[in-house]
Design brief:
The protein has ten helices and nine strands. The protein is an alpha/beta fold and about 325 residues long. The chain has a single domain, classed as Aldolase class I (TIM Barrel, Alpha-Beta Barrel). Bound molecules: iron/sulfur cluster (SF4).
């Protein structure tokens, strides 16, 4: 019997588009107010100079070129037939609307791109930008991915996010009702956060009516403020066993309707300082799946706010995000 314990993104996409759909990460050459001096120049303490991107734009690779190269690679590797243009690097609403439109249009000109995903900060969105993004919902599946990481403002301050949980709630409320899907990013294992702190984040998100979540493990990249903290003993991070247990407990508290887009981090091996286990993504995913099975639990087991008749039927799938 198939164990259906997690509402995973891959299954959601296959159901919606009838084929394998893969995300193409795009570095469109944007900046970030937490790096360009507007809020700070140091950035979030775990962020390296690439802002989670590939560095493609600094190599002068156009959006079109990035898409062509990724399509060939993903079609060969996963037999993907359709793709989502994922504007990942830095803050992808941090530019005037006419520039944003040009970059999004360039990505969506490819007929095999069926979705647009925009990674941004919750303090870099407003009605004008949302009006622009909403236009694309007429033809494409559209996600906005807001970096939150934790609901605790003391943690956000410690990691130098430069925004508050209230900023995130404001962004979510402004985005809702526009046919734009909302994904939140969280990190488990942030300095100073206990298991209870992490589960508070799960409970708060469960109540907000978001559509998706990416759960990352904290990893330490070289030459970041976090690396210096780690080397000075001010941050130990989580061992793999603890991370897996926290993820399972986190999932239990989420609404079963939230689509899980990611269950662990995926660091660049050449930039990673610690922990070594974060390079073994498949092993971590297997352990999460096994723990869900052994504990006979599932996403939403402890979520009690949504009446059962409101839960989307058939929304549970194998956990393979
Ligand atoms: S918001 Fe993103 S790009 Fe900006 S400093 Fe933080 S992690 Fe880096």
């Amino acid at each position: 019997m198939t164990l259906r314990r997690c509402n995973d993104f891959g299954s959601y996409l296959r159901k919606r588009f009838g084929c394998r759909v893969q995300k193409i990460t795009i570095d469109a050459g944007f900046s970030c107010p937490n790096r360009d001096g507007t809020l700070s120049s140091g950035g979030c303490i775990y962020c390296d100079g690439k802002g989670s991107g590939t560095g493609a734009s600094s190599r002068a690779e156009s959006i079109r070129m990035q898409i062509q190269q990724a399509k060939a690679r993903l079609a060969a590797r996963y037999k993907a037939e359709k793709f989502i243009a994922y504007f990942q690097a830095f803050t992808n609403t941090y530019a005037p609307c006419d520039i944003l439109r040009k970059r999004y249009d360039e990505a969506l000109a490819d007929s095999e791109i069926v979705g647009l995903a925009i990674g941004t900060r919750p303090d870099c969105i407003d009605e004008a930008r949302l009006n622009l993004v909403e236009e694309y919902t007429a033809t494409h599946m559209v996600w906005i991915e807001y970096g939150l990481q934790s609901i605790h403002n003391r943690t956000l301050e410690r990691i130098n996010r430069g925004h508050t949980f209230e900023d995130f709630v404001r962004a979510v409320r402004m985005t809702q009702g526009r046919n734009i899907l909302i994904c939140a990013h969280v990190i488990l294992g942030l300095p100073g956060e206990s298991r209870e702190d992490v589960l508070d984040t799960a409970t708060a998100l469960a109540d907000l009516g978001i559509d998706g979540i990416k759960i990352h493990s904290l990893y330490v990249l070289k030459e970041t403020p976090l690396a210096r903290l780690f080397q000075a003993g001010g941050c130990t991070g989580l061992d793999q066993e603890t991370y897996v247990e926290w993820v399972v407990a986190f999932l239990e508290r989420l609404s079963p309707n939230i689509i899980v887009q990611r269950l662990t981090g995926d660091p660049d091996p050449s930039a990673l300082l610690a922990p070594g286990w974060s390079l073994n993504k498949q092993q971590t995913l297997s352990l999460i799946k096994k723990t869900l099975e052994v504990r006979e639990t599932w996403q939403g087991k402890l979520f009690e706010r949504l009446p059962l008749d409101k839960v989307t039927s058939g929304s549970y799938f194998d956990c393979n995000s």
